[in-house]
Design goal:
Layout (H helix, E strand, L loop, with lengths): L1 E2 L2 E2 L2 H17 L7 E4 L5 H12 L3 E4 L6 H11 L3 E3 L21 E6 L9 E5 H15 L6 E4 L6 H13 L2 E4 L5 H9 L5 E4 L1 H9 L10 E4 L6 H9 L4 E7 L4 E5 L8 E2 L4 E4 L4 E5 L14 E9 L5 E6 L3 E4 L2 E4 H9 L4 E11 L3 E10 L7 H11 L8 E4 L26 E2 L2
Parallel strand pairs: 1-9, 3-4, 3-5, 8-9, 8-10, 10-11, 11-12, 22-23
Antiparallel strand pairs: 1-2, 6-7, 12-13, 13-14, 15-16, 16-17, 17-18, 19-20, 21-22, 23-24
Helix pairs in contact: 1-2, 4-5
Length: about 425
């Protein structure tokens, strides 16, 4: 494993894990406890992940960017025995041997991304994480010299899954604390990375930085948010092996990936997909958190989608992304995709805002492409050429940036919090 400037073999990681587990025991942590950690992404946090398992505890990684009150709320909700804010040091207790691990005991408690409301804790067992790692291996393959780039935060499942998978496979995880564009681009261009997990915002930054070579990359697992068409075209032109994926905290990361660009996502081994009556995507399988299942044994994802004739999944947005305007249903994601097709648009977010006439008005928040200055009226006309009249935004607001979380997901509930950079234009 490589974490920033530090690296460790698995034998070294095992020794550090043993010492950390003994320190946890000396601090009173025992089986069934929870250990919260507000540590940067790196070797110390990964060591603590395995040390917690060694004493039978569950790790609760915390986002270091949280305010004091937000952190206190998450600590109160998960009730950890210990909160770790510095690498463990000090006294080590004797540790009785543990013969095997209860696969159904919680290994991690991760908070959801909170894009549609308050983040909630999800308990993931050893079985969940290992099943996810095995399914990923079937989907992407494993090579002995794999080096998986981890620049996603370890307090989210998309990041934490990488060192867990790598430990299951016995391969290398390359962990950075944050996304430094120049460093990541250089690492990829030198052929040091074979697999990478990114969100579209990160891929966009690599495009803007002029990344042209990725000689060793077998796959860029792209998830967390929908990818603009122009970004996917750029990746194809650069021969970057982008594989779009679908998953969530409750499924210990990915459950379906594309076999080919634009083809729809194929369920990974062990995953069952079904579309409910409301168009909701339902998931079950050994990687799904047991506490998230409905009485029928399915995870209700809150996402809309469809399965085509080949059984491939097409994700169409959140159920609550549907805007009801004048009695018509409008998909916010569909409107966003139409706006993103404009060459002068870098990012777009759409929401329904209260309106006396329409009930909800379709309102778009648009980030212009670098050096571009599209007018709101121009963008409304562009939308009118691609969308049915009732789907066309009633208003376009130009903004400097959209609210996105650490995984690059649009936080739709926060659209409109920042003042627009120009006057809104209303559609006729």
């Amino acid at each position: 494993m490589v974490a920033g400037a530090r690296s460790a073999t698995y034998a070294e990681l095992d020794r550090e894990t043993d010492a950390a587990a003994r320190r946890l025991a000396a601090l009173g942590v025992t089986a069934g406890d929870r250990v919260a950690a507000a540590l940067p992404a790196g070797l110390e946090l990964v060591t603590l992940l395995h040390a917690a398992a060694r004493v039978g505890a569950a790790l609760v990684p915390l986002d270091a960017r949280l305010t004091a009150s937000e952190r206190r709320a998450q600590i109160d909700e998960t009730a950890p025995r210990l909160v770790v804010e510095e690498p463990l040091a000090g006294e080590q207790a004797d540790l009785a041997p543990r013969w095997g691990i209860d696969l159904d005991a919680p290994w991690t408690i991760l908070f959801t991304s909170g894009t549609t409301g308050q983040a909630k804790p999800v308990g993931l067992s050893h079985r969940n994480h290992v099943a996810s790692a095995i399914a990923s291996a079937w989907g992407l393959g494993v090579a002995p010299d794999d080096r998986w780039l981890c620049v996603l935060p370890l307090f989210h499942v998309g990041g934490l899954a990488i060192p867990i998978r790598s430990a299951v496979y016995g391969t290398t995880a390359v962990v950075y604390d944050g996304f430094a564009t120049a460093t990541v681009a250089d690492t990829i261009a030198r052929g040091e990375i074979t697999l990478a997990s990114l969100v579209p915002t990160m891929l966009r930054r690599l495009a803007d930085a002029g990344l042209e070579r990725a000689p060793a990359l077998r796959a860029i697992l792209l998830g967390g948010a929908s990818a603009p068409p122009d970004l996917l075209r750029w990746a194809e032109e650069q021969a970057l092996p982008v594989v779009r994926t679908y998953g969530m905290t409750e499924t210990a990361s990915q459950v379906a990936t594309e076999p080919a660009p634009g083809a729809g996502a194929r369920a990974l081994p062990g995953v069952q997909l079904q579309i409910g009556r409301s168009g909701e995507i339902l998931v079950r399988g050994p990687m799904v958190a047991s506490g998230a299942l409905d009485p029928g044994g399915w995870l209700r994802t809150g996402d809309r989608g469809r399965l085509d004739g080949r059984g491939l999944l097409h994700v169409e947005g959140r159920l609550d992304d549907v805007i009801v305007t004048g009695g018509e249903n409008v998909s916010a994601v569909e409107v966003e995709e139409a706006l993103l097709a404009h060459p002068n648009v870098a990012d777009a977010g759409v929401v329904g805002l209260p309106d006396r006439e329409w009930g909800e008005a379709v309102v778009a928040f648009v980030v212009p492409a670098p050096g571009a200055a599209p007018s709101p009226g121009e963008l409304i006309e562009h939308g009118a050429r691609r969308l049915a009249p009732f789907k066309v935004p009633k208003e376009v607001r130009l903004v400097a940036a959209l609210p996105r979380n650490a995984q690059g997901k649009l936080v739709r509930s926060r659209l409109g919090e920042e003042p627009p950079s120009g006057p809104p234009t209303t559609a006729s």
